[in-house]
Amino acid sequence: MPDSLDSIKKSRKASSGKAGKKGVIPDVNLPDDARFQNVLAGVRGGEAERRLDKILNDIQRLSVLLARRRLLEELEEYRDRVGDFLKLYLDEVLTVREATGGRRGLRKKKLIVVKRINVELEELSRMVLGGAPEFKIVKELGTIEGLLLDLYR
Question: What's the gap between Cα 23 and its chain centre?
Fold first, then answer.
């Protein structure tokens, strides 16, 4: 896909400034496909991906702390970071994937995963507040992280 952007830029460069029947041919605006490719490039390997990576790292760090100490503040911070991940994913990544011609029903499938994550977060809260053993909390944290990674790939 980057090759198509280069060819568009080259053709714009070659066409600008040439004399035609009615004078100078103006620069041709980038076609919708090329503009969208710029947006897509911002998601893949771009800002959104970097932010998702950072949030996932924060979630993993918090899960280790939460499993060991089981403090309410850490549970709230963990839930907030998972929420940040889901918001960023739904607002930026999923929207771009759908617009690029993703499979039919992609949004519905992904929203089912998001609902499942919310259910698992509720279960995690009950476990932490109820004093469940560490291994059960670790298992629940692993389930949540696995669902987040399923969305991400």
Answer: 47
Cut 0.90: pTM above it:
no
pLDDT tens figures, 91-142: 887 766 655 555 566 777 888 899 999 999 999 999 999 999 999 999 999 9
**Tokens 């790292």 sit on residue:** 57
C-alpha–C-alpha distance, residues 34 and 12, integer Å: 12
Domains of the chain: 44-152 (1.20.120.490)
Which of 2, 9, 128, 4 has the alpha carbon at shortest distance from 70?
128
What does the DSSP 8-state code read for residue 102? P
Could you give the CA distance from residue 19 to residue 88 in angstroms, rounded to a whole number? 47
**Residue 20 DSSP SS3:** strand
CA distance linking residue 128 with residue 140, whole number of Å: 10
| b/e code 91-126 from CB counts within 10 Å (16+ = b) | ebbbebbeeeeeeeeeeeebeeebeebeebbeebbe
